[in-house]
Specification:
Helix content: 40-55%
Structural class: alpha/beta
Distance between the termini: 68 Å
Strand content: 15-25%
Number of domains: 3
Length: 708
């Protein structure tokens, strides 16, 4: 298995990565220019003096996506400084040379903050376990204040656990499960429940979070002392005991559990993130383009997820043995003979066995179904806690997109809503279920549908590649949400979300790719990005059905923008025009829009034991291009032209969704309908989606009038 992701040397040779590099440079200069232009831009800085390093970050404004404009990490381990040369468990004073090193690092941070024109009074210095427990803690804090003017805010165990949990909420959109933060000196465990779609924006957490002295550096030191399987077994049992006692005090609510009583865990902190990077590096996907294997395509830790079962297999290989019947584990250096995996330094690799050891203990305490890895930690949580509560419900992805320099100013809210309404009207309900097919039903019912949440953002993103040459549009659109794209640092996206966005936007520009006989836009992208194409493809829920839904959504978005390139609601009055016809004794007013969805299918009779008829459904998406009532009254030329006509002909296609129910590891069974598999007597769960063009809608309306 490969121990690294796509080598940078290969990435920079492709034209798309050259473009992305140029874009990154331009954005950096643009952000800096904006900071100089506005001296009162309201930014804040946060310095987190942790046990294993000091992290510094500048946030340009307290908006939902917490836009970071600068961050770096000073590799100063206060934990090691207090234990170096000491054979006992007693902590020693933070040495003078380390204090000087910290002072110099903070002075550097102060200079950078000043350069970015952030008031020094708006830079917050916080400290956790290593500072809290140092024998000379008071002296250390006083020295920092005298040399920098900054007063260190010493977080208690309880506040540290709360802030850490809020850091996860800051970088996701909706969190329900357990949150674990493994720092250098300690590990925090809490439950978090935040449903942004609900009116009540309280973030539910335990008042008694777990804080134990089993951070990555601390546990590594303990493992060095417990150097036999017998001793490690004793240590393992002690950790399990401590976790169980703390877990009982958490009193986690039942509604954050799955039906089988299992939890989703959100992991952050350097110790756990290393496990995430290791899991990424050992994930392989068959690559049809190269007839070989591809590495995991998205090297972004935030939003990466895996089943607890799969992670346990990796952990078992590297965790120090605590079974007296098993031969002692290999040395750390022997674990990665071909070099350390991506984003795992030599120093971090030494701490990796401790992280694995702790994860094994967690699995002894509670049942875990899925693991999500998070970028958000104490710094993010500290900033999020300063936001107004009304902002907590805002989608961080939408907040990120709207404030981005690539977002066109001419796309008004009214225009966006018009496009969204048209596209949303044409999407069958089954599409939402298919793209949620990897989510357990009891979980999906608590959160907005994935496509429902992504669709408004897809409308915005559909414009981000429009200004490129035609041949570049599909590939740049495909990579917007991936590692090198402008959305790489966007919060609130899982890797599944990123794959769906990539596939939809690729098909938004399907007309700019090769013709269908040549393999279409998919063939083009597989050639331009052979290292990641098949891997991204595999991330989309529902298999081929899920990719078909993304294709349809992307094409509909592109066609809607073609028909409505500008806001026509006010000037042309389209939103006020309707067709009137009678059905029986009722008069029906029908809005004249470019999309119309009709659903046909069998009546399904459900009794206690089975469904007696087939569950096959047929959806027809009509493109209304020749409604004379629109053209006569508003004289609209935007739709009645050869460009739209030619594009509409390319859209006409019949799709068949097979609805195969193959089970994914650690995920729910894949379904194409809402019907329970166990109650279906016939296996035909296929769904047909037929896109047709109505070129004489007014005639059809007249016929309905005559019949009525």
């Amino acid at each position: 298995m490969p121990n690294s992701l796509i080598p940078l040397s290969k990435c920079i040779l492709t034209p798309s990565y050259v473009w992305l590099s140029s874009l990154a440079v331009w954005l950096g200069k643009n952000l800096l220019a904006q900071s100089h232009a506005n001296k009162n831009w309201g930014g804040i800085g946060v310095i987190d003096i942790g046990s294993n390093g000091i992290r510094f970050g500048l946030v340009s404004s307290l908006t939902r996506h917490l836009p970071v404009v600068y961050e770096e990490r000073a590799p100063i381990s206060l934990f090691e400084a207090q234990h170096s040369g000491s054979k006992s468990d007693e902590r020693t004073n933070i040495p003078e040379e380390v204090i000087v090193d910290v002072e110099n690092s903070l002075k550097r941070f102060k200079y950078i903050a000043h350069h970015y024109q952030i008031d020094c009074n708006n830079v917050h210095v916080i400290a956790t376990e290593a500072t809290r427990t140092a024998p000379n803690s008071s002296h250390f804090i006083e020295r920092i204040k005298n040399s920098t003017g900054w007063k260190i805010e010493l977080l208690s165990k309880e506040i540290e656990a709360k802030i850490s949990g809020m850091g996860v909420v800051a970088t996701y959109y909706g969190v329900e499960g357990l949150v674990m933060d493994m720092g250098g000196g300690s590990v925090e465990l809490n439950y978090v429940k935040h449903r942004p779609q609900e009116t009540d924006q309280e973030i539910s957490m335990s008042k008694d979070p777990i804080n134990l002295p089993y951070g990555a550096a601390a546990l590594t030191k303990l493992l060095e002392k417990h150097d036999t399987p017998e001793k490690r077994d004793t240590l393992f049992k002690q950790i399990v005991k401590d976790l169980k006692e703390g877990f009982e005090k958490l009193n986690a609510p039942t509604d954050i559990k799955s039906k089988d009583g299992s939890f989703t865990i959100y992991m952050n902190g350097g110790g756990f993130k290393s496990l995430g990077y290791l899991s990424m590096s050992e994930t392989e996907v068959a690559n049809k383009s190269t007839n070989g294997k591809s590495s995991y395509p998205i090297s972004i830790i935030n939003g990466y997820s895996t089943s607890a079962e799969e992670l346990a297999k990796i952990v078992k290989r590297i965790a120090p043995s605590h079974d007296v019947n098993i031969v002692e584990s290999a040395e750390v250096g022997d674990l990665f003979p071909m070099g350390n995996p991506f984003r795992i330094s030599k120093r971090r690799a030494k701490l990796l066995p401790a992280s694995a050891f702790l994860f094994e203990a967690i699995l002894e305490v509670c049942k875990v179904q899925y693991v999500y890895f998070c970028e958000g930690g104490v710094r993010h949580g500290y900033c999020f806690n300063k936001l107004q509560k009304s902002i907590w419900s805002v989608d961080p992805l939408e907040s990120f997109i709207k404030s981005h320099s690539l977002q066109p100013k001419y796309l008004t809210k009214a225009h966006h809503n018009q496009l969204l309404a048209n596209v949303k009207k044409a999407i069958p309900s089954v599409a939402y279920d298919i793209l949620d097919s990897d989510i357990p039903p009891e979980t999906s019912s608590k959160m907005p549908k994935r496509l429902e949440r992504l669709l408004p953002n897809l409308i915005y993103l559909a414009y981000w590649s429009m200004h490129f040459a035609k041949e570049a549009r599909p590939i740049t659109a495909f990579q917007l949400s991936l590692t090198g794209g402008p959305l790489a640092n966007a919060p609130g996206l899982t890797h599944t979300d990123r794959a769906i966005i990539a596939w939809c936007l690729m098909y938004r520009y399907h007309e700019d790719g090769s013709g269908s006989k040549s393999g279409g836009v998919e063939k083009d992208i597989s050639i331009m990005a052979p290292g990641i194409f098949d891997s991204v493809k595999k991330l989309i829920p529902g298999g081929k059905d899920g990719r078909t839904i993304c294709e349809i959504v992307g094409k509909l978005i592109g066609f809607a923008i073609l028909c409505y390139p500008v806001d026509v609601s006010d000037k042309l009055g389209i939103s006020n025009i309707s067709s009137i016809f009678k059905s029986g004794s009722k008069t029906i007013e029908k809005q004249s829009t470019i999309f119309e969805l009709s659903e046909e299918g069998h009546e399904i009779n459900i009794n206690d034991t089975e469904i007696t008829k087939k569950s096959k459904k047929n959806y027809k998406i009509f493109l209304n291009l020749m409604d004379e009532s629109v053209y006569d009254q508003a004289k609209v030329s935007l739709i009645n032209n050869s460009l739209v006509k030619k594009s509409s002909e390319k859209l006409e296609k019949k799709y068949t969704l097979r609805g195969k129910r193959k089970k994914e590891k650690g995920r729910a069974a894949m379904v194409a309908t809402n019907i329970d598999e166990t109650t279906t007597s016939e296996k035909d769960n296929s769904v047909e989606i037929d896109i047709q063009v109505k070129r004489n809608l007014s005639k059809a309306v007249k016929e309905k009038k005559i019949k009525s």
